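Sample A.
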Amino acid sequence: MTRRLTMLFSAFEALLVAAIGVAIPLLLATLMWAVHFGFAPDWSGFWRASVDVWLIGHGVDVDFALDETTALVIGAPAGTAVTISIAALGFALLTLALGVRAGARVAETGHRMLGELTAFVAFAAVSLLLTLSASHPAAAPSLWQGALLPAVVFGVGLLLGILRADADRGVTAHGRIAELTARWDPRVRGTVAAALKAGTASVMLVLVASSIAVTVVLVAGYAQTIRLYESLHTEVLGGIVVTAGQFALIPNIVVWAAAWFAGPGFALGTGSLVSPLGTSVGPLPAVPILGALPAGDLAFGFVGLAVPVIAAFLAAAAVRPALLVAIGDGSRLGWSALVAVGGGLAGGLLLGLLAAASAGGVGPGRFAEVGPDPLAVGLASGLEFATGIALGLAAGSVTIPLPRPSRSR
């Protein structure tokens, strides 16, 4: 494929990813415009709202000016500026997944660097144009965030797509890293690799446990969720819109559950706290999914603090054989301690970043702070991961002597 065709193909891939992301809220908004409003209002308002939703899904801050009706309902002066800064991570995950696909396809063109750069620049340009098209005195997204943040998510997807294409050709990321670190001491290389793998695996296992916990809580609180749906008095289409919006927040809720397991928990408004050691929340908006939130303190909630430690223990057990091969016959205590500290730092940093991505503001007043505290989550989980990794590495070196069978005379 020629360079010009590669550039056109890459730009088209980027445009397609952005179009799919915006089309999801736009389809629902257009149905609302046609069915509920009877084609009466200006459709451009629904276009801007759809783009705003897509941008919010990538962490872009959007400043809203409250109209008189909304301001009266929440008891705020008309025209009050409200910043929505929380990211509905479902849209970001969609962009990431489509970016992986686009990266793998562009990598097959034969002009990898040119294609990937073209796709990234084209996506950033499209994102900027979308942000400009959504700018309005009633809802103004941040221009620089609108151009940068969705493009960063897409760029990460492109990178992962390249790695997947390399793996299909037999060129693994491990092989590339081995080439770059060929001059390192084998013990250092093995220790760094074990720490990064253990920390990352610990976070992944905690997220798996969090996903299971969220599913169980939603099933257990199904009745209250249905009652909240009924209290909204939405028609079928309105219920679909509310449900779609909650689906976009499911990744956030999974991260909040991970923060709960880590200990610091999360807030549902300034002054509130949901954690294993206690729950204190004030009045909540009528969001159906919040109806599944367990009320009051959990008698054995502190048991959840063991989840990050157990996850790190299992991760350490998985990386221990490769670590022992890298260390050789020398002293293992010092290297194991480095792996525990490094794995704790890596895991704590990763979970802290996820906590930061999942938190933000969803409204005025006390709802300007929703989600976990990234610093607290990072510190607490880092300590728990380090403890679990240390225990996992130490447990593998413990041998339990078995009694010898007695010989019968």
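Sample B, a different protein:
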Amino acid sequence: MNNVIIEVQDLKKSFGGFLAVENLNLKINRGEVFGFLGPNGAGKTTSINMMVGLLRPSSGQVLIDGREVQEIEKGTIGICPQELVLWDYLTCRESLMLMGDMYEVPGAKLKKRVDKLLDDLFLTEKANTVVSQLSGGMKRRLNLALALIHEPEIVVLDEPSEGLDPQSRRVLWNYIRSLRDDEGKTVILTTHLMDEADRLSDRVAIIDHGKLLRLDTPSNLKKETGEGDVVEMIISDPGKNQEFINSVKKLEGIYGVVEVNSQINIRARDAVGKLPLIMDELKHFGLRVVDLSVRQNTLEDVFIDLTGTGLRE
């Protein structure tokens, strides 16, 4: 069996004079969580919509198991959109049964599938509660269940954690992992949350302004940006940021210094050990620290390194 389940070839989409996606080429492997990481408006959702056949590309093609996306059976893909698509006056169980009927899931199998999804997504106690009375996190989990009722081979999740509290996000992340690990499904995940992409994705495609900037495993992408930790600083006079940055860059063991939204990010090996040298430079300019933290390298640092701007700008 071919390990590649989706192949995207020279995909392009224009809306009038606006080029939303430009010459996208990639392959997605069977049974992996594949992350699209980028800021809102980067072209992630447009790319996904073309890949699953919801949007016709201006040029290029998408192959799923070697066949044109328009030719595959409708049940091959399950799509969980960013916007909630729910029936407010149906209960959770009724919603799932209705969606299962639409996909022509056999009756006995459908009932078992509904019970399992309610249990897996911690909705059993709310099975007979109408959707309008659910919390935001419960609605989002039900939205996911509806996309999975017919047991699709490929699951597409568009910004699945949008608006979720930390507890609901943890439940969702664990379930996404189980789709890959326990059910062998291929999961395509679009997100602007670096932590989500890092924790869930086997491979990450970083996209911005409709272009694929880099595609690799999260660990390889972070290694590519450079070793070491990151010191995040806000200094007392942002007007002197560039002058301070130019000075810090000359220090031994400093791998990179960038300014993001008036904050200075310094990447260095043994960053804590470098702090006295950095503070000496600060004093030299008559400046003081307003805020300071030290953290490990992240996918957001990769994005900044590629584009010079922050992921959420």
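Observation for Sample B: The longest strand covers residues 4-15.
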